[in-house]
Amino acid sequence: MSTVRVENITKTYEKGQVVALDNVSFEVKSGELFGLIGPDGAGKTSLFRILTTLLVPDAGKAEVAGLDVVKDLWEIRKLVGYMPGKFSLYQDLSIEENLNFFATVFNTTVEKNYYLIEEIYVQIEPFKHRLAGKLSGGMKQKLALCCALIHEPKVLFLDEPTTGVDPVSRKEFWDMLDRLKAKGITIVVSTPYMDEASRCDRIALIQKGKILELDTLEQIIERHAQNLYAVDADNRYGLMKDLRTNTEIVSAFAFGEVQHVTLPPQMSGESYLKNFLETKGHTGIKVKKVAPTIEDTFIKLMLENQ
Amino acid sequence: MAKSVIHTQGLTRKFGDFVAVNAITFDVQEGEIFGFLGANGAGKTTAMRILCGLLEPTSGQASVAGYDVYKQNEEIKKHIGYMSQKFSLYENLTVRENIQFFGGIYGLTRKELREKTDVLIERLGLNHEADKLVGSLPLGWKQKISFSVAILHRPKVVFLDEPTGGVDPITRRQFWDMIYEAAHEGITVFVTTHYMDEAEYCDRVSIMVDGTIAALDTPSGLKRQFNVNTMDEVFLQLARGAKRGE
Q: How much is the pTM?
């Protein structure tokens, strides 16, 4: 069963000049942890705003929990929790006041649904009298998640909850999402961090308003096999420059301490790249065939769609 | 031995009882790409504000480009560049206007401004966008322009506060190409990031935990020291030990 169904949604701004979403279709299954992976400006926020009934699409149809996002907006608002990318709680209310406020608006109490937020709330409870505007980024993020959960939503929409968050806090946040998923909540989450794709059941790679791919991480990577090599040499700056001048090379991008070099299929890269770099005078050359990561795949899809 | 462009000795900043930066000591060499990592709340921003001449330390010493952070903070501001994800450019000015505005603030002459603006627009491949409002451009372009503007006056050192957050994977790498170019031309780069693959691109990396510098070395040195294969694991080992909540 699908909890979210998006059919041919298009959204433009500035009288059609800016296309935020271009004929986008996908479904999110009930109980799924679904990731929208793409950079700033890909259209993720527009999509979230449409699905949470805050924005009306130009064309297409979308349903959440079987309800239409345009006709049934009041019903949907009771069923979904939304954590916007920009911190949107009341800065001049305390942690406790914000939480009580959201519970009251949804006609419920903190006590009734405390079971859902307990694990997260205990981390910020020692500061419950502090104003939301005075909280650090990580605490704001936890409070926003509590406020989005306090009315026991069926579907949770999280727009870039981990942007600007350090790697340790990011891992902890995803662990929290796993436990919410175990409680039966369907979760749609967006992120610009490609490494977080592995935490989702399925992902959609999105760029410039279009979905480039949609499937499990493993399937997407497999579908876009690449003849890929990790290359390193003593002079890394020179290495980068020289690789860019070689026209046989499809693409060369830095990946941590190595360059990921894509060659045409069938080409035997090890000897070819070694020889090429030797003629350029490089020392300490290392070439190794590697399997692509989701980030390699995203780059490949971006280049193909340019 | 290479010249140090940033020097700190026991640098400390307290806010009331809270010790945000606790006696940090380190040097950054000329032309180096120095990664300044740490968990949210570890004290990075406070340390960076001191080094940019925006905040006075409580105790300890620090100098940037040879200027003292207590007495010569106005000189520091003239000799550094700064960009962050939050503050970069004026959205309602065009690309050209932004370049000229910031160039003017950094004290470039009219003639220099005219020449440098054209060169920069050409180099960024923005000939068609030069007279468009910055607000209408994708984030990745804004960040590239913003970085170029931050080094327009050839500062001794440029401070980059999470310059690539949210940027697409190709633009993120093009941005690092620009960092390499700048460092190659002798500009010292002091950069914070939450992307651990970017930590690998730095010459040396420091990791702050609870206000102190818990580790400082080359990326390969750090991986050896912690006996792991990636900077991500180095970071996890150190930051997991943090006592200080955010």
A: 0.89
